[in-house]
Amino acid sequence: MNNLTNTNIFTHIPEILIEECFEPIIKKDNLIVERIISKGHVTPLGEWYDQKQDEWVLLLQGQALLLFDAPKKEVMLHPGDYVLIPSHSRHRVEWTLPDAETLWLAIHF
After folding, report:
1. Tens digits of residue pLDDT in 75-106
2. N or C end of the chain: smaller count of CB under 10 Å?
3. What is the CATH number of the domain that holds 36?
4. pTM of the model
């Protein structure tokens, strides 16, 4: 018999977030589903994400600004917005709300 559990993506949010929080929900073969929690967090200056896998990101709560390197493009995200980031698309988080949690659902495949 399977052991089924349920939880809520909007619960168990740490009160203090010194660093951005990455929580895997599912890890299987070439698939990772994770919850990301930001609160004023940004990608450090001079650093870029350059991932081997595609990433689909859905903003569930808060706001965020992504910057893509080539071609240069800013993408502002509000709740319900999503973006597909192809592998090796250099990008970074330029801004998230400083006074409220920004919740992301990211799928790496």
Report:
1. 999 999 999 999 999 999 999 999 999 999 99
2. N
3. 2.60.120.10
4. 0.90
